Amino acid sequence: GxxxxxxxSRVICKSGTSVKIECRSLDFQATTMFWYRxxxxxxxxxxxxxxxxxxxxxxxxxxxxxxxINHASLTxxxxxxxxxxxxxxxxxxxxxxxxxxxxxxxFGDGTRLSIL
Amino acid sequence: DAKTTxxxxxxxxxxxxxxxxxxxxxxxxxxxIHWYRQLPxxxxxxVIHGLTSNVNNRMASLAIAxxxxxxxxxxxxxxxxxxxxxxxxxxxxxxGNEKLTFGTGxxxxxxx
Lengths: 116, 112
Known about the structure:
The complex is a heterodimer of chains A (116) and B (112). Chain A is mainly beta and 116 residues long.
């Protein structure tokens, strides 16, 4: 089945560091990928829609200059958390789909980001 | 997207069937009913989806009310590995490349 790989699975770094998270579709091409954030004991919140070859679409309240998204190929989207602070500590999850009808979303295993 | 309502939590004994309800009284005629689940410390995984007719796959069954205002996800024989948060989500179309709006879901606990 379709697989989405997310890397790294865990990051611990100092405040002020920028952190890049990769999301890859391993056996299919994805023109659209999605980035979610999940705080402890809460549901997933969509941050942005990553579009291959064009600018990402951000949800209301998500700072586009803080969370940089690049979708340079049909199999890779990256999320960079710039100048991360402790309040950015969260579980970041990406998803993608082969597209077309009747196709579910496939999620990565998430990246747990801890900012000290 | 139309809103769904699910119980916050449910418990079930291992090896017994589990019925997870979802209310979606404002569902529109073009909304598909999707179910995903999230195991601890993992990303969500697709379970099943349907429009009007009941659906079965290797993971579960989806029973959709005739008026489509509610649905039930059925796990026929729960195992410990089924302990997860289950999300019932409405999507306006059957196309995969559209965003999902997650509610609070139902946390399912399986009792050995």
